[in-house]
Specification:
CATH superfamily: Vaccinia Virus protein VP39
Radius of gyration: 18 Å
Mean pLDDT: 95
CATH class: Alpha Beta
Order of helices and strands: HHHEHEHEEHEHEEHEHE
Distance between the termini: 33 Å
Structural class: alpha/beta
Number of domains: 1
Helix content: 25-40%
Oligomer: single chain
Bound molecules: S-adenosylmethionine
Number of helices: 9
Largest sheet: 7 strands, mixed
CATH topology: Rossmann fold
Shape: globular
Length: about 270
Amino acid sequence: MSTSYESRNQAAWNLLAESGSQFAQVANDEECRNPLVTLDTRGWLPASVRGLDVLCLASGGGWQSILYACAGANVTVVDLSESMLELDRREAERRSLTVRTVHASMDDLSMLADESFDIVHQPVSTCYVPKIADVYQEIARVARDGGTYISQHKQPTSLQITGRDHRDRYHLGIEYYHEGALPRSNDDSYRETGAVEYLHRWEHLVGELCRCGFVLQDFCEPFRADRQAPPGHYRHRGRYVAPYVRLKACRIPRAEQEEPASSIWTP
Ligand SMILES: C[S@@+](CC[C@H](N)C(=O)[O-])C[C@H]1O[C@@H](n2cnc3c(N)ncnc32)[C@H](O)[C@@H]1O
């Protein structure tokens, strides 16, 4: 792992983990009492995950991994940040759970065997790699036929926002077709300090997923709006643009998979 986006994001997330970011909070006792409900408010997971092989992808921090392990799954967690993975290891040990940690980038999972996972669960993180298709291809390879992929992504329009004017209207200061790493933004409600991020358009987020061997089964926009939130608050911004999308997809059995369609149309 030597590319600049990887080393910069690794450093940024090590810092976030060490400074107690909201994304680096291990699952608490209350959340662990009913782990599947905590993980999944929409009923996307099976009634039991006991004995299933689950990959928590780009999911360090000791939340998803600990909850799946509490529910009896065989858990592997992959993350770029050693400090995030250390939280998983420490919390698993404290709770006498088994969690396998792998230090790797989500776009190269070559250390993981083909068709070795029943569920792949990925929190918001595809924004940290330039090519989402590389990530989807790796997930399609390691997922078993009929396996479930649950993931959350930053919504492209949200990543276009660069600030707010004197009438509290949000600016789309970045072009939808922006290529390469995003410039820094004055509005960091939904950006992480020091991280290198990329905007993935809908044709990448959803189109590449289908082209890589998945069918989309469900889709939602986690609610982040609050009418009482003052301008500047992330929930004020959430009234105007939904920051995230969450999707559930199924790995098409290999025997039924058609040839991938042609690549993305370029305007
Ligand atoms: C928003 S956090 C998700 C973790 C958290 N447990 C949660 O509750 O949402 C995003 C994670 O992606 C990881 N990450 C960033 N770039 C990555 C990459 N290229 N490969 C794997 N993980 C990466 C970060 O280290 C961080 O742990």
